[in-house]
Specification:
The chain has about 140 residues and is an alpha/beta fold. The chain is built from seven helices and five strands.
């Protein structure tokens, strides 16, 4: 199953956020192991780097991003993505871009902790990491 993972899930791992890191790491491992086909938005790389560098060493972040690039496909961001994102009724443009990328890449789900910020009009289901794990364990 193809999924696109929002930046905040990766930030939970890098910053080891107690309330969220366990589920975030499980989603990561499912993609790393090939059980899920994980996608990441290109701007997430930059966001992870800048949001993490205040508390983590730069080399540690770069290593995480390098490893991330082996386990996740980079969703293309092109003219069609921007056109599609502009048509979505979402307040946060970065979220609109990610949702558009999920749609374009045939992702069944977008995994995020801020699901209320995403539209649900494009056929991509928006779930949090815990819900994704629960569904997979039931299957």
């Amino acid at each position: 199953m193809k999924i696109l993972i929002d930046t905040n899930v990766f930030i939970d791992i890098v910053l080891d956020r107690p309330s969220f890191v366990v589920a975030a790491k499980r989603v990561y491992k499912l993609c790393e192991g090939g059980l899920l086909d994980g996608y990441i938005a290109p701007m997430s790389i930059n966001n992870i780097y800048y949001l993490s560098r205040k508390t983590k060493h730069v080399d540690e972040i770069k290593n995480f991003l390098f490893n991330l690039s082996h386990s996740f496909a980079m969703a293309p961001l092109d003219h069609d993505t921007i056109k599609l994102a502009n048509s979505l009724r979402m307040k946060d443009y970065e979220d609109a871009l990610q949702y558009a990328m999920a749609m374009q890449n045939g992702c069944r789900m977008l995994v995020t902790r801020n699901g209320r910020d995403f539209t649900h009009d494009g056929g991509v289901e928006v779930v949090d990491p815990e819900e994704l794990i629960e569904r997979i364990s039931r299957a």
